[in-house]
Protein 1
Amino acid sequence: MLRKVSMTPSLKKKGYKQRGPSTAYNPGRSCSHWGFSIMSLPRTLGELRQSPFSEQRLNTRRVKDEMRDNLIAKLRQGGPIFPGIVGYDDTVVPQIVNAILSRHNFILLGLRGQAKSRILRALTSLLDPQAPYVAGCEIHDNPYAPICRPCQEKIAKLGDSTAIAYLAPEQRYVEKLATPDVTIADLIGDIDPIKAARGGHELSSEYTVHYGLLPRANHGIFAINELPDLAGKIQVGLFNIMQEGDVQIKGYPIRLPLDIALVFSANPEDYTARGKIITPLKDRIGSEIRTHYPATVEEGITITAQESWTQRNGHKLHLPKFVQEVIERIAFAAREDKKIDKRSGVSQRLPISAMENVISNAERRAIHQKEALVVPRIADVYAAMPAITGKLELEYEGEMKGADHVSRELIRAAVAKTHDAYFKGVDMQQIVQWFDLGGEIQLSDTASASEALPSLRGIQGLMEKTVKVGVGPKDSAEIQVSAAEFILEGLHAHKRIGRNEERVFTAGEKQPKPAEKPFEREDAPFRGRRPYN
Ligand SMILES: [Zn+2]
């Protein structure tokens, strides 16, 4: 999902290589509601007039009308409006629906990683499967009302034999990340003096304009991410296009009555900060819609499961639910933590990247130990710190402590909460006692399950508790070890038992430290064992 979708390559080229639907057609979509098959799409203006793409139908149907019509059809049909967008059904989606029904330009206000770009890209699902335009036109002119001079002249000369090409919905979506260095030339266009000199045109003639991103999005959707980062001058240009269809390029007035649905995204604080957005532009944005992070851990798990790369070649994966919950709760804990900057938020990309790293660490262990089944453990979550630290914007207090320390604390808090969800009220005294009596066990993240399991079985009262996470003695060693380790990690998170950097679980700190040689234990096989890694 996080792929950057920018202009389609064909848009970047000056002339269109594509000839009609052979390249533009997306076989996943059906054209049936237009009443003809793909093979019979009109090829000339004359044919187009006689088709369901009639002048009467197309000429007054602007992009926002098209989106509205297709949205109404979807609403009547029932089912999800934006498949794959989770947790917004009762909040964000109804507001977007209203904005589109109102034919508004709209902005999504939200923190990092709240699927803003994803929603904007999903708007292409509201475009017609095929959109005819004057073949070869850089700005996809409506064949019945071309706005560029070359098209007007072409149609005057060729009449009904003017060639028609088609755009698929994905080709009608242009996205731009706003940065302070975006220029009018990038966004709207530039006057090309060489073009003018060669063709003998006046500088202000449409023949001499080299179009920017916005005109190239004509007859489609144009998305600007992080709108407040756009310089004031560019915002004025944008406003003029929205308002009047007029714009000045290098002082020359150019008339461009574009047909575009403009959508934006921004961080709410940047957007509301005084002076960041020019007032007339703000006025022209019909709806402001707030996005949010998943409201429940379950929703977060659904999103992370959907977005992270988990189905890999090679090893079979068994992903325990409690590992999913721990990973998700790291993000939840981080969003609440005072040491982390609230204004920038904690992206859903944190649990997504963490999940991928957790699985990779488990995969690495499986390869190393020649295990058939990849089963992540809590140790793998701690090993996934590189996927976590970079996604936290720390406040002063957090910076003092360091990202590593803060992340470790978050994982620990997440483990404690998840542990509670499964083991609240369960008597763990026997296990704690085993450690209090001097028992120790090292469980490194590279330890093989077959080696670790007998040691874990030696801890009285431990293995029988794994039923609480749905694991029993008939499950594979990898699964049993993961469940048992989760219990120990939970007790550690609650400070009932200790664990050091080498991942040796010991008695909790509250216990008086045993003397140099406490007493000879018969079950001390774990002590002399060499570290697994
Ligand atoms: Zn044109």
Protein 2
Amino acid sequence: MRSSFDDTGQEDRPVLRFIGRNLSLLAFLALSTGVMLAAYFYFSPASGVAEVVAAGNAAGALSAPFAKPVPPKPILQRLAQSPGPIRIGIISGHKGNDSGAVCEDGLTEAEVVENIAVRVVSALQARGISADLLSEFDPRLEGYVATGLVSIHADSCDNINDLATGFKIAGSGLTDSSQLSICVEDAYRQATQLSYHANTITPHMTDYHAFRQLAAGVPGIILEVGFLNRDRQLLEQQPDLLAGAITEGIGCYLDQIRGGVTIAQSAAPPAAAPPEGDGQ
Ligand SMILES: [Zn+2]
């Protein structure tokens, strides 16, 4: 009987038997559930608090903004992606068209600048750089594709006043030509010790016909190498010096295009070189 009771008891109440066997485990599960629920309700914010936190964050109270305004990076030159073969165009001012400025004794701007332009072209070619000597209205200028264009001119032979000395450079308004402009200006100033004559740059220079003829994206500058009157001795008798300076400036520009370095980095070392003492 007893065994049968036990048997039936065990058969009728398997759940109780299971609980009896695993009492300590079940007690642990119940306790831990209780602790977790308590922890959940203890740390949960009251309703509405989450919205308050979000609103405060939106106003920037809880964290620093992670989207700082960053100024756009200036475009220094547009050939970095696909430089192509290096080619430089040199316009010999007025060549093939007119004589340009003329001095009383017949010296012309066209002959003075051609003397310089020819030397620049051969110096570039001697460095292995493709260079074209172009006349003022050269047919090749229409859609001319190059790494850069430099047009060489000189200023008036009239004895205007004491200020009529120095050189000046105007860059194309259609393409960013600042790198070419800065390189040539630095090299020319250092070599010639001429002052930069910024205040006589005319729209005639900035709206130069060749700038409009060049292929899109080709940087171009027009360089007035000096005044035929007050700077005559330098212009007429030292074409090698002037051409060397212009070639140097173009070399600086090409280095920057090929090296992709900024103007400040590459211009700094040469600027600190010997001419500093002479300039004082
Ligand atoms: Zn001219």
